[in-house]
Amino acid sequence: MKTGIIVYSYTGNTLSVAEKLKEAIEKKGHDCTIEKIAVNEDYDPNNDMGKFTILESPDPTKYDFLVLAGSVIAFSLSPVMKRYCKTVKAIEDKKIALLVTQHLPFAWMGGNRALRRMEKMCTFKKAVICAKEVINWSRKDREERITSATNRIASLV
Ligand SMILES: Cc1cc2nc3c(=O)[nH]c(=O)nc-3n(C[C@H](O)[C@H](O)[C@H](O)COP(=O)(O)O)c2cc1C
To answer: What atom in ligand 1 is closest to the CA of residue 75?
Structure first.
């Protein structure tokens, strides 16, 4: 099964989880590619979170299984991932796992909301959501949670 992980990561946190997920998927004998959503280099969500241009928007059509990985900004989905989900085409009937990272320790502190937002946009385009995972960066058990979340997603591929 050809799997694509489409990620937007500002600090590298989400990308590091995507890399672990790629390893877990490859261990199961599947092809896996990470593709980054690229924005203008000087984009800084701390200054003006809505001011950016998407320069590279990965094409989901070549994958049988898709993972969308983003983060929480201001208690919601990061504006870059929001715009990607809004504009992405041809995800009808595609199996998609959603993954977000956030600093705060509990998913109800923005992570669940970000997932709901992503899910709504993807199901509107008739994608099939098969997993939703939040990684809370400030938790002591973060590494264990990353391992279990990535294994859960990998088991669905
Ligand atoms: C401008 C800004 C706002 C943020 N707002 C939140 C927030 O509301 N809740 C939270 O838990 N984390 C928040 N974070 C932290 C990020 O979600 C967290 O560090 C995440 O892992 C970043 O992943 P990434 O840089 O790989 O995308 C914020 C980070 C930035 C830069």
So the answer is: 8
Predicted TM-score (pTM) of the model is: 0.97
**How does DSSP assign the chain, residue by residue?**
-EEEEEE--SSSHHHHHHHHHHHHHHHTT-EEEEEE-EE-TT--TTT-TT---EEE---GGG-SEEEEEEEEETTEE-HHHHHHHHH----TT-EEEEEEEESSSSGGGTHHHHHHHHHHHHHHTT-EEEEEEEEETT-TTHHHHHHHHHHHHHHH-
Which residues approach ligand 1 with their CB closer than 6 A?
A: 9-15, 45-46, 49, 71-75, 101-104, 109-110, 137
User: What is the domain-level CATH number for residue 20?
Assistant: 3.40.50.360
Q: Can you give the pLDDT of all 157 residues of the chain as single tens digits?
A: 899 999 999 999 999 999 999 999 999 999 999 999 999 999 999 998 899 999 999 999 999 999 999 999 999 999 999 999 999 988 999 999 999 999 999 999 999 999 999 999 999 999 999 999 999 999 999 999 999 999 999 999 9
Domain total for the chain? Answer: 1
* Residue numbers of the domain that contains 38: 2-156
